[in-house]
């Protein structure tokens, strides 16, 4: 309840009290008016007068009337009427008034006794003779005197009553006046207090307005400062990325050269360091974008199974290196597809998984997904790592904070991963948290409101247009559109390494000019360029009706923003490469568009053919026939040696060695295009990692035969190749 | 021929009205009073018995529909039981159609009373007080009495003015 000023309360109570009192006084006045009973006063005057007048009339009747027997009856009737008038004084309301007036009462008793005497005379009357008349007249004369005096007595009494009443009323009116004055005074005080209150309110309102205005200004200032900071970060990050891309690209190229031992080690270190640096810059850029409120969610149908599988797949090598079991489990009751932002969800999962693997030295890391409440899905990343001190838990999701300073020294990193994850989860409408005990491992969890969806999954944008360009890479004529010198050099060097001939255009206009002069088989297009950006160049190319409307255009983007990809596709580009360029991805993209190949990973599982002829062809191309054969031989020997090891590891139930052996077999098999064998090794590895080693029996039993069949198939393809 | 037919109809209607009026007038042929006349009703009345007046003695008044009412009045020291014919039955027996009547008292007092009062309230011409005939000294022989105790709103100056005592005649204007 609001507190009112004491003065206001007092004055209000006083005003009300005075008002009530005034009402009482007014009621009293009204009551007195009513009670005064003017009727009675008037009646007593009237009846006194009539009594006197009836006496006079009766006397006149007696003196001037005729005197016979009929007249006597008339006289008696008139006497009765006179008597009835007297009865009024004795019995009616006016009797009380007479009783109050001593003079009138005395007078009335005199009149009554005179009337009784007269009554006796009249009753005894035999006839109205002159003698009787004289007696009666004498009586009536006496009566007349008394009735006249009664009038005077009544009048005198009424005068007194009126005077007293006037005095009493005057007193009441005075009281009323005092009440009204008091009421006005209290009302005035109340008004003054209210007025002051209103003035104070107005003043404080103005003060608040001023204050809020100032706050708004400083908020705006702070916001623009923060904006400037974010812009600066974004710019700086971008500026750092460009040379870093050069470092990564060049060190990648360097790695492939046959260098002496220390040089090779240095180049590897340069490459790894540069990639780590890039990761950190990505984090900072991401965080500054989120902080600047520039994050937009891209909600679309998400297949959780595939998302989880991809995330786990990414960390499998790292887990294997640390000999950790990496498990995944998606609850069967979850719908196949949910509405969400797959990119952001993946980013959070990767962050948590990377952390878990980073801080776990033995045991396992498990990612599980299960529905919780209606419409909510919970993701848990559980590890058997070192855990976190309880005192450090609250600051874990704060930006630029790591568990403690020693963590930063030992493990590195920006400390932004969890902060980014938290902001992403919150932006997706969810919550994130951690349970951990020092030495007992951690459980990082987040839950998101994800609604199921029935619509078919959006067509993946990276699917290549089915277009056959059966050409060797060496014959391909490529155009590289890139404004940055370092990037130019990286791209050209990589393409040369792949055996392609490439022409360079250093800006969008130059690219358009070159394309009007000659034809290219594929164009690698930088997206951000000063004059025309890559999307605009592509749009213009597509507007022609010749080869330019169809030529494969592959975007090269600085990466970071998730919508770059869809923007590029919308502009008519065919594919998408994120800088830094890596040999592997570049080769894959070129093959896809120039040779019409699709990636091996998109081959449907279960229907894997025994060998992949393209891989063998590529080996042939890259190494030459002899070296390819030597490689296949080596693979055969190694695989035959490995099989008994696998079987013995299986028999002993040793999961980790089994997983490692299977992983190695998988890599070797994939290298020579032995797809079925690679797939079998992969299944084996999964079983070993998931701890369900018993399920691997069928695969292990089938392995020797599969290996022999594969080797035979490779031998057949070699013969075919040498015949042609 | 239409006009005479219409006139015929009007004539028949007028005849019926007159016949009805006469019939009503003669529905209660009143005899002359035998005892001393207490009330004389004169003026615009339909039922008469002597010289275009209706004269009523005590017996005739007793025959009319009467009421007994117990009430206090401003003119009596305590409540009494008053009896007498209803004012409306007196007016009906005289065949009064006017809206107002003028009541005369022995002492020369005159008051006009709206006929509606007689129908809205059980106004009586009180003849007896506590079982005894009211004398002139006690405001008799007839007293226009309103039921004050049953209807407190009647205790006002105008009704008290209409409460005529010592009534001897009613004049219908």
Automatic annotation (TrEMBL), chain A:
SMART domains: HATPase_c, HisKA, REC. Residues 235-452 form the Histidine kinase domain. Gene3D superfamilies: 1.10.287.130, 3.40.50.2300, Histidine kinase-like ATPase, C-terminal domain, HPT domain. Residues 624-724 form the HPt domain. Keywords: ATP-binding, Cell membrane, Kinase, Membrane, Nucleotide-binding, Phosphoprotein, Transferase, Transmembrane, Transmembrane helix, Two-component regulatory system. The chain crosses the membrane at residues 6-31, 172-195. GO terms for molecular function: kinase activity. It is found in: Cell membrane. The modification Phosphohistidine is found at residue 663. Coiled coil: none annotated. Its EC number is 2.7.13.3. It catalyses: ATP + protein L-histidine = ADP + protein N-phospho-L-histidine. The modification 4-aspartylphosphate is found at residue 526. It is an enzyme of class 2 (transferase). The keyword Flavoprotein does not apply. PANTHER family: HYBRID SIGNAL TRANSDUCTION HISTIDINE KINASE J. This is histidine kinase. It comes from Halomonas litopenaei.
UniProtKB/TrEMBL annotation, chain B:
It comes from Halomonas litopenaei. Gene3D superfamilies: Oxidoreductase, molybdopterin-binding domain (3.90.420.10). Residues 70-144 form the Oxidoreductase molybdopterin-binding domain. InterPro entries: OxRdtase_Mopterin-bd_dom, OxRdtase_Mopterin-bd_sf. It holds the Pfam family Oxidored_molyb. This is Oxidoreductase.
């Amino acid at each position: 309840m609001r507190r009112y000023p004491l003065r206001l309360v007092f004055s209000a109570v006083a005003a009300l009290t005075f008002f009530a009192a005034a009402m009482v006084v007014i009621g009293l006045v009204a009551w007195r008016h009513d009670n005064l009973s003017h009727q009675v006063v008037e009646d007593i005057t009237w009846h006194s007068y009539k009594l006197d007048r009836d006496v006079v009339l009766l006397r006149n009747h007696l003196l001037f009337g005729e005197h016979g027997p009929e007249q006597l009856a008339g006289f008696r009737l008139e006497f009765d009427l006179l008597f009835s008038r007297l009865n009024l004084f004795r019995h009616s309301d006016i009797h009380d008034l007479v009783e109050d007036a001593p003079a009138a009462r005395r007078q009335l008793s005199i009149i009554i006794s005179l009337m009784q005497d007269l009554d006796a005379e009249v009753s005894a009357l035999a006839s109205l003779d002159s003698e009787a008349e004289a007696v009666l007249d004498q009586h009536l004369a006496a009566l007349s005197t008394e009735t006249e005096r009664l009038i005077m007595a009544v009048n005198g009494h009424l005068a007194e009553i009126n005077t007293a009443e006037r005095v009493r009323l005057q007193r009441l009116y005075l009281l009323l006046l005092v009440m009204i004055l008091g009421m006005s005074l209290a009302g005035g005080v109340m008004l003054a207090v209210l007025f002051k209150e209103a003035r104070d309110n107005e003043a404080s309102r103005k003060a608040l307005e001023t204050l809020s205005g100032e706050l708004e200004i400083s908020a705006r200032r702070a916001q623009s400062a923060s904006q400037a900071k974010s812009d600066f970060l974004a710019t700086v990050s971008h500026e750092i990325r460009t040379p870093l891309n050069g470092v990564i690209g060049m060190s990648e190229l360097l790695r492939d050269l046959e260098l002496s031992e220390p040089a090779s080690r240095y180049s590897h270190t340069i490459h790894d360091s540069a990639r780590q640096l890039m990761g950190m810059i990505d984090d900072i850029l991401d965080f500054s974008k989120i902080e600047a409120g520039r994050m937009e969610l891209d909600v679309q149908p998400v297949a959780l199974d595939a998302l989880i599988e991809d995330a786990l797949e990414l960390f499998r090598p790292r887990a294997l290196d640390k000999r950790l079991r990496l498990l995944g489990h998606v609850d069967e009751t979850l719908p196949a597809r949910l509405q969400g932002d797959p990119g952001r969800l993946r980013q959070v999962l990767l962050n948590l998984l990377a952390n878990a693997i980073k801080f776990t030295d033995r045991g396992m890391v498990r990612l599980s997904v299960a529905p919780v409440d209606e419409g909510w899905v919970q993701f848990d990343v559980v590890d058997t790592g070192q855990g976190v001190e309880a005192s450090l838990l609250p600051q874990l999701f704060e930006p630029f904070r790591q568990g403690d300073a020693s963590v930063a020294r030992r493990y590195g990193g920006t400390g932004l991963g969890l902060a980014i994850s938290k902001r992403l989860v919150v932006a997706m409408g969810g919550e994130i948290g951690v349970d951990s005990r020092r030495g007992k491992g951690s459980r990082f969890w987040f839950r998101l409101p994800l609604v199921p969806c029935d619509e078919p999954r959006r067509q993946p944008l990276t699917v290549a247009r089915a277009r056959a360009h059966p050409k060797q890479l060496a014959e391909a004529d490529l155009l590289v559109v890139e404004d940055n010198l370092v990037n130019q050099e990286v791209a050209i060097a990589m393409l040369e390494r792949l055996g392609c001939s490439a022409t360079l255009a250093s800006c969008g206009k130059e690219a358009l000019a070159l394309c009007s002069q000659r034809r290219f088989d594929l164009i690698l297009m930088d997206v951000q360029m000063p004059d025309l950006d890559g999307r605009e160049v592509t749009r213009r190319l597509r507007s022609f009706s010749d080869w330019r409307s169809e030529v494969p255009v592959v975007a090269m983007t600085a990466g970071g923003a998730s919508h770059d990809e869809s923007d590029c596709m919308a502009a008519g580009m065919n594919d998408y490469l994120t800088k830094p360029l890596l040999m592997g991805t570049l080769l894959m993209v070129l093959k896809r568009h120039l040779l019409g190949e699709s990636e091996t990973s998109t081959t449907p599982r279960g229907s894997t053919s025994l060998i992949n002829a393209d891989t063998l062809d590529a080996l042939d191309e890259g190494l030459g026939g002899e070296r390819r054969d030597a490689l296949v031989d080596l693979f055969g020997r190694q695989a035959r040696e490995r099989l008994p090891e696998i079987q013995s590891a299986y028999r002993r139930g040793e999961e980790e060695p089994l997983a490692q052996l299977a992983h190695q077999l998988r890599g070797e098999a994939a290298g020579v295009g032995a797809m079925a064998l690679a797939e079998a090794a992969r299944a084996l590895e999964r079983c070993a990692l998931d701890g369900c080693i018993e399920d691997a029996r069928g695969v292990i039993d089938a392995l020797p035969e599969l290996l022999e069949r594969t080797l035979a198939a490779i031998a057949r393809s070699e013969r075919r190749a040498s015949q042609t | 021929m239409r006009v005479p037919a219409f006139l015929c109809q009007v004539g028949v209607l007028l005849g019926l009205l007159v016949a009805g009026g006469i019939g009503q007038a003669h529905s209660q042929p009143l005899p002359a009073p035998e005892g001393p006349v207490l009330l004389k009703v004169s003026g615009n009345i339909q039922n008469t018995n002597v010289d275009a007046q209706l004269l009523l003695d005590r017996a005739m008044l007793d025959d009319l529909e009467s009421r007994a009412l117990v009430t206090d009045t401003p003119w009596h020291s305590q409540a009494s039981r008053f009896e007498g014919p209803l004012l409306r039955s007196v007016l009906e027996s005289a065949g009064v159609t006017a809206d107002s009547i003028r009541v005369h008292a022995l002492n020369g007092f005159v008051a006009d009373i709206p006929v509606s009062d007689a129908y809205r309230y059980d106004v009586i011409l009180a003849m007896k007080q506590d079982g005894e005939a009211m004398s002139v000294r006690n405001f008799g022989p007839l007293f226009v009495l309103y039921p004050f105790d049953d209807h407190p709103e009647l205790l006002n100056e105008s009704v008290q003015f209409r409460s005529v005592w010592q009534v001897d005649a009613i004049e219908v204007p």
